[in-house]
């Protein structure tokens, strides 16, 4: 439909050019493409151009403009007819030409169906996942990881060079606290054994003790200053805590099959903040306040951005500013995207503003915060603060276990059961996480997430496996078609099949929209449409049972097209597609 939209738009623009020029107005093909709508039902055609917005410039009523367009429109080979109705110019696509063209494109492009060069030559840095050392990898980080990874895959698909950065939270006052807690109540073996859970226990203990003994806070601050000054004991302990945490995080990334191009976290900028601070001083942006240094943002209706604490130690924002300047230079990026919870919005607005005030005007056009809503587990908030920790790893483990039970019930003979259970269990959670607009809050419900019939990951994966199975059975029964490109599209003009192609053809457009809005849920929801549309086809149109070879082959080609779009879509949101499940 994409192509047709473009051609339809081009023809309209050509027809309107003279009258628009006479009126001193313009309309580009891209603008016209944006205006074109998909009519809500078949009788109104396949594509619809609304004439309302042109009314003013052309000094004519929309119905008149539509009628004028219809009169001069030369119906191209790909269309059956063009009709003007109440201010719209509707085009009816020639079904056979349409099905044939989409079939060819999808089969030929395969894995690359939907890929473009829109981002060619441009680099996007995506800062995502970014969990905190010695803190649990929780469900909030899952959202960042899932959204960030999807954006990485999607933007790469439309031609951008992406750099995935895991901006680990591995620096800050909390390490002073942890060092103190470890020295007072910790034990080497317990930490080695318990890992992050033990580190969290120590951290929580610190907070409990500090309530009655506030001087502990000062000791902790002093230890963080030691760390910033590279005191060997502080660095040794910090490195150890970091290694332990990374090893645990890596287990989650392995489950999700997510990787990063850089693990330069907050500590990486320890020696890069001095320059920033000097620059802030030179540009007269720093202001002293009770011993601390900050950038006043009152003029911009924001609280001040704290740069240095009273004790001279740096802050989260200080490191973010240093990181942005570093990344811009190192990667020559055209965009830096930060995927974190919406609760950090103010933080990003503040330091984006500081970078702008430093004179880097790219701050306003190239730094993007991509916020997302909160996650709760069947009602209960996932709070980590007081030790009531829900580890992502445990959630994945549960999902995998539930899927394993299901497989044992329905398909006990399945080969590599473990691998499939991981792909489906993890896929279910990621899919559910990416199903709603990212800014909305999410509630995990096991029943919903793992439902094989609902609008879920397992449902889409199952549909993919079903398509794969048809093609496999075709081979096994000697009914495979070796030249799918040569099938007769004339066999595929029934309503269900045409509807399926209309859905499949929207894939490239959906990807572009999802990239434009940095919104993977557009792809996720689209995949449910594809799966539903394919399952209708599967129900209404027998495939291997059909005797007529031409029809059977044509339908096998349809299966292959749907299978391709499902696989591409799942891949772009970071979900695997098992061949059997
Ligand atoms: N570590 C932070 C957290 O867990 C997220 C870091 C996001 N990236 C950044 N450059 N600030 O909330």
Structural features:
581 residues; alpha/beta; Gyrase A, domain 2; Rossmann fold; Isoleucyl-tRNA Synthetase, Domain 1; four-stranded parallel β-sheet; 23 helices; 13 strands; 56% helix; binds arginine
Question: What's the gist of this structure?
Answer:
The chain is α/β, with parallel strands linked by helices and 581 residues long. It has helices at 2-22, 29-35, 55-58, 62-72, 95-109, 139-157, 173-185, 188-194, 196-212, 215-228, 232-256, 273-282, 316-331, 345-357, 362-366, 392-410, 417-433, 446-450, 457-476, 495-505, 507-517, 521-540, 549-572; strands spanning 47-50, 79-85, 88-93, 123-127, 161-165, 286-289, 292-295, 305-308, 335-341, 367-372, 375-377, 380-381, 442-444.
What does this protein structure show overall?
- This protein has 581 residues and is α/β, with parallel strands linked by helices.
- It has helices spanning 2-22, 29-35, 55-58, 62-72, 95-109, 139-157, 173-185, 188-194, 196-212, 215-228, 232-256, 273-282, 316-331, 345-357, 362-366, 392-410, 417-433, 446-450, 457-476, 495-505, 507-517, 521-540, 549-572, and strands at 47-50, 79-85, 88-93, 123-127, 161-165, 286-289, 292-295, 305-308, 335-341, 367-372, 375-377, 380-381, 442-444.
- It folds into 3 domains: 4-93, Gyrase A, domain 2; 123-386, HUPs (Rossmann fold), CATH 3.40.50.620; 401-572, Isoleucyl-tRNA Synthetase, Domain 1, CATH 1.10.730.10.
- The protein has 23 helices and 13 strands.
- It has a 4-stranded parallel sheet, with helices on both faces.
- Strand 4 (123-127), helix 6 and strand 5 (161-165) form a beta-alpha-beta unit.
- Helix 7 (173-185) packs across helix 10 and helix 19 (457-476) crosses helix 22 (521-540).
């Amino acid at each position: 439909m994409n192509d047709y939209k473009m051609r339809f738009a081009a023809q309209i623009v050509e027809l309107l050019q003279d009258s628009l020029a006479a009126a001193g107005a313009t309309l580009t093909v891209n603008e016209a493409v944006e205006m074109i709508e998909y009519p809500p039902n078949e009788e109104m055609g396949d594509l619809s151009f609304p004439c309302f917005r042109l009314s003013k410039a052309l000094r004519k009523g929309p119905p008149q403009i539509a009628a004028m367009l219809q009169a001069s429109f030369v119906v191209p080979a790909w269309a059956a007819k063009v009709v003007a109705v109440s201010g719209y110019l509707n085009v009816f696509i020639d079904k056979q030409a349409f099905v044939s063209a989409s079939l060819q494109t999808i089969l030929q492009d395969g894995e690359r169906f939907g890929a473009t060069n829109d981002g060619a030559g441009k680099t996007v840095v995506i800062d995502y996942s970014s969990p905190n050392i010695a803190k649990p990898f929780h469900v909030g980080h899952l959202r960042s990881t899932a959204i960030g990874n999807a954006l990485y895959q999607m933007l790469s698909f439309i031609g951008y060079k992406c750099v995935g950065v895991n901006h680990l939270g591995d620096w800050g006052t909390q390490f002073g606290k942890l060092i103190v807690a470890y020295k007072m109540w910790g034990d080497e073996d317990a930490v080695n054994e318990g890992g992050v859970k033990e580190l969290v226990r120590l951290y929580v203990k610190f907070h409990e003790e500090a309530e009655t003994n506030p001087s502990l806070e000062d000791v902790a601050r002093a230890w963080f200053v030691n760390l910033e000054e590279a005191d060997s004991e502080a660095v040794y302990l910090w490195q150890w805590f970091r290694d332990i945490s990374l090893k645990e995080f890596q287990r989650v990334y392995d489950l999700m099959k997510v990787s990063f191009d850089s693990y330069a976290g907050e500590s990486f900028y320890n020696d890069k903040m001095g320059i920033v601070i000097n620059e802030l001083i030179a540009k007269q942006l720093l202001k002293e306040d009770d011993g601390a240094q900050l950038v006043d943002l009152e003029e911009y209706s924001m609280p001040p951005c704290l740069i240095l604490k009273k004790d001279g130690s740096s802050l989260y924002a200080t490191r973010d500013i240093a990181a942005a300047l570093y990344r811009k230079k190192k990667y020559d990026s055209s965009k830096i995207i930060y995927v974190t919870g919406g609760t950090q919005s103010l933080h990003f607005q503040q330091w984006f503003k500081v970078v702008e005030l430093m004179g880097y005007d790219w701050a306003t056009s190239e730094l993007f915060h991509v916020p997302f809503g909160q996650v709760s587990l069947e009602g209960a908030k996932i709070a980590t603060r007081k030790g009531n920790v829900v580890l992502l790893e445990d959630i994945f483990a549960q999902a995998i276990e539930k899927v394993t039970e299901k497989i044992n019930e329905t398909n006990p003979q399945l080969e590599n059961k473990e691998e499939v259970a991981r792909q489906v269990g993890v896929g279910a959670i990621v899919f559910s996480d990416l199903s709603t607009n990212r800014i909305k809050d999410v509630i995990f419900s096991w029943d919903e997430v793992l439902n094989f019939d609902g609008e879920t990951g397992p449902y889409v994966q199952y549909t993919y496996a079903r398509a794969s199975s048809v093609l496999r059975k075709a081979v096994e029964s000697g009914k495979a078609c070796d030249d799918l490109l040569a099938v007769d599209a004339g066999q595929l003009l029934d309503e269900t099949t045409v509807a399926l192609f209309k859905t499949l053809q929207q894939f490239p457009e959906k990807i572009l929209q999802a990239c434009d809005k940095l919104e993977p849920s557009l792809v996720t929801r689209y995949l449910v449409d594809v799966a539903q549309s394919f399952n209708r086809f599967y129900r209404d149109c027998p495939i291997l049972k059909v005797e007529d070879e031409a029809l059977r082959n044509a339908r096998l080609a349809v299966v292959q097209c749907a299978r391709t779009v499902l696989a591409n879509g799942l891949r772009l949101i970071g979900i695997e597609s098992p061949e059997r499940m």
